[in-house]
Amino acid sequence: MINPFFRNSGPFKISDILQLINLDDLNIDNDQKIIDIKDLFTSKKNDITFFHSKKYKDIAKNTKASFCLTTKILKDELPKSCTPLVVENVLVSTSKVTSKFYPSSINDSFDYTAKDINETHFKNKVKYGKNVLIGDNVTLGSNCLIGHNTIIEQNVSIGENCSIGSNVIIRNTLINNNVTVLDNCVIGKHGFGFFPINEKNLRYPHIGIVIIGENSEIGCGCTIDRGSMSNTVIGKNTYIGAGSKIAADTKIGDNIVIGALGFVNKDLTAPGIYAGLPVKFIKKNKKK
Q1: Coil, helix or strand for 240?
Q2: How far apart are CA 214 and CA 216, in angstroms?
Q3: CB 271, CB 252: distance < 8 Å
Q4: Distance of alpha carbon 65 from alpha carbon 169, whole angstroms
Q5: Distance between CA atoms of 87 and 94, rounded to whole angstroms?
Q6: 2: pLDDT confidence band, cut at 50, 70 and 90?
């Protein structure tokens, strides 16, 4: 997973992680260092992962992780090289562990580092409207346009020949060349992920980012959430209609059109036109 923005606070001893999720009396080396938490597919030796649904059992059989948060029913699907950590609620435990590794990924308050573009080195590099703010760790390619009242918050990279509309907020996002983002879009904020526990909601951290492929267009008023454990990816030559919502961790392939007000809550791979709540395949794109 491409993740250049959230800093990993690890490694941690496995004993620290076990204490966090209320596990003990396991016959393991408590001093073993755990480097990161990742999904089943991308995890490696000395990583911890999670496995909460049988629909991922084929991936689980081949995970390279050293430890896995899982259930009693699913633990036997893991390879011998991966030690199962049986917990009461896999996703809640995963949230706690992820928060320990990536504490800065939990909240999305306003970007206090943002300052007027006239106070930055971008003032002579791009064309921009009034009241444009730029945060830390931002790069802007040549020949870009930025509309009025737009905030490019921290951790954003925008390629060449891009047009960003007015009243747009972007953070934790990689935008490739020749992309158009129309007015009133919000891109890269965390998704709607939480768990109710003892009359209090536990916010699920989102350590993924948004990646938008080249030659794409995002219509007015769209929201694209960054991923939780993986990235939200928009393929190249993809057009998303006005008012659409792209859920966290979603992958949208190349040459796809999303109709206005569409809700994308699963991966879309086949080129074509999609629409609806949630979106469904409508028809193939017309040949040019």
Answers
A1: strand
A2: 6
A3: no
A4: 36
A5: 10
A6: low
Return the structure tokens found at 1: 């997973």
266's tokens? 């699963």
* pLDDT on residue 1: 62
Q: What is the dihedral of CA 106, 151, 1, 92, to 10 degrees?
A: 20
115-283: CATH superfamily: Hexapeptide repeat proteins (2.160.10.10)
- Burial class (CB within 10 angstroms; exposed 0-12, middle 13-18, buried 19+) of 55: exposed
Q: Is the dihedral of CA 87, 90, 96, 98 positive or negative?
A: positive
Domain range list for the chain: 12-105, 115-283
The per-residue pLDDT for 270 is 92
Q: How far is CA 197 from CA 121, 201, 202, 229, in A?
A: 46, 6, 7, 21
pTM for the model stands at 0.88
Domain spanning 12-105: CATH 3.40.1390.10: yes
Residue 287: other Cβ atoms inside 10 A? 4
Q: Which amino acid, one-letter code, is at 248?
A: A
Contact 38, 65 (CB under 8 A): yes
Contact 99, 106 (CB under 8 A): yes
Cα separation, 6 vs 233, whole angstroms: 17
Contacts of 158 (CB under 8 A, 6+ apart): 138, 139, 140, 141, 144, 152, 164, 170, 175, 179
Reading the block at residue 145, the tokens are: 């346009």
Mean pLDDT, rounded, for 263-278: 92
Element spanning 114, H or E = none
| Ramachandran bin of 91, using left for φ above 0, alpha for ψ from -120 to 50, beta for the remaining angles | alpha
Average pLDDT over residues 206-219: 95
Contact 170, 188 (CB under 8 A): yes
